[in-house]
Design a protein that fits this description.
Rna Polymerase Sigma Factor, Chain: A; elongated; mainly alpha; 165 residues; 8 helices
Length: 165
């Protein structure tokens, strides 16, 4: 856990409500981006992020959390996957932040992402958008780091194949 999270979690556990707000501000954007990327729906993403933080609030007096960031991503991931099981994902068109504002490039990227499975999109998001290492992703997805590297290699090859079509 980073120092700021550690200090804020301890302060929140002692009853300081502003500490939870600081944790929220530090992590909400990454969680929201992940949820939008996985669901293709901004409203669903907001709901999922709120639910993850509600569950964190419920952990206040529970067992210690080694890493708030990792715990939030695992919780958010589980909530998102459960959501996707209940509801077919929408198209991702226009929902993924892309630095290039060229509409043609935007459509090209959306087309590729729409053709990935939710599991494949998740790997790409965790690695490329959020910068998690193979080991961190492995811990979140309950896989070996080698399996994560293999899956990332395969999804990159699939993306290249889609791009060539």
């Amino acid at each position: 856990m980073n120092d700021a999270d550690r200090q804020d979690w301890a302060a929140y556990s002692r009853g300081e409500r502003n500490a939870l707000q600081r944790i929220f501000e530090r992590h909400k954007d990454a969680m929201f981006t992940y949820c939008v990327y996985m669901t293709g729906n901004r409203e669903d993403a907001e709901d999922l992020v709120q639910e993850a933080f509600a569950r964190l609030i419920g952990r206040r007096n529970g067992e210690p959390i080694a890493s708030i960031r990792d715990w939030l991503f695992i919780c958010t991931r589980n909530l998102t996957l459960n959501h996707l099981k209940r509801k077919a994902p929408a198209s991702l068109a226009g929902s993924i932040p892309v630095t290039d504002s060229d509409p043609e490039i935007r459509r090209f990227i959306d087309t590729i992402l729409d053709r990935l499975t939710p599991e494949e999109r998740e790997l790409v998001l965790l690695r490329e958008q959020h910068g998690f290492s193979s080991s961190e992703i492995a811990a979140m997805l309950e896989l070996s780091p080698e399996n994560v590297r293999i899956r990332l290699y395969r999804v990159r090859k699939k993306m290249q194949s889609i791009a060539r079509e």
